[in-house]
Amino acid sequence: MTKMPGAKAISLDRVVSAVEKVQERLLRACRALDQGGIPYAVAGGNAVAAWVSTVDEAAVRNTRNVDLMIQRGDLSSVRRALEDAGFVYRHVAGLDVFLENDQASVRDAVHLVFASELVRESEFAPNPGMEVSIDTGEFKVISLASLVQIKLTAFRDKDRTHLRDMIEVGLVDETWLTRLPPALASRLRSILNNPNG
Q1: Taking the chain (197 residues) in consecutive chunks of 10 residues, what is each chunk's mean pLDDT?
Q2: Count of CB atoms within 10 A of residue 7's CB?
Q3: Nearest to residue 50, comparing CAs of 193, 169, 183, 191?
């Protein structure tokens, strides 16, 4: 078997370990914020996975990032809570992230997303507010409507993939077109018309 330089042998244990590490990071961060009474909602790929799992566990896609939506005014409280839980704060390339430790990669981090703020100047709409999140018992997750809005607004390749995942299991369909601003409805229409990309 050919192996790439610097690569380790293929191992299912390492694959499982990678998934478990993301789950542990998410739960550790959420517990710290819950204990501090700080509002938050899991967003990004983990939110997509959580929603997709409500319909079909076999359709869940693993993700490496932990994205947490918070209110900008809570940043100092969030930082204190996550640092007390052992995370290391960094501001990297315009992002607020919390690493597992001093040697950890930004890939292995908790990324903050700010409610009611534009992520990029060119985007159609700011992130939704924190008004609606669902308490799963283990963590709080962003509402499906807010998640779809974020994914349609960002509309990067991974966002389009996440939207396809939600469409595939029936969480999102043509009935959503009338609920969205025209620019976002047009983006959803383009995916509904061409679900295979």
Answers
A1: 69 86 96 97 97 97 93 97 97 92 88 91 82 91 96 94 97 96 95 88
A2: 8
A3: 169
Domain limits, the chain: 13-143
Handedness of CA 33, 39, 40, 41 (dihedral sign): positive
Structure tokens at 136: 């799963």
Predicted TM-score (pTM) of the model is: 0.91
Asked whether the beta carbons of 145 and 181 are under 8 A apart, the reply is no
Whole-number Å distance between alpha carbons of 82 and 196: 39
The residue type found at 174 is: E
Q: Work out whether strand 95-99 and strand 140-142 pair parallel, antiparallel, or are unpaired.
A: unpaired
Contact 176, 184 (CB under 8 A): no
- What's the CA gap between 10 and 47, in Å, rounded? 29
Residue ranges of E strands in the chain: 41-43, 66-70, 88-92, 95-99, 109-114, 133-135, 140-142
The CATH number of the domain covering residues in 13-143: 3.30.460.40
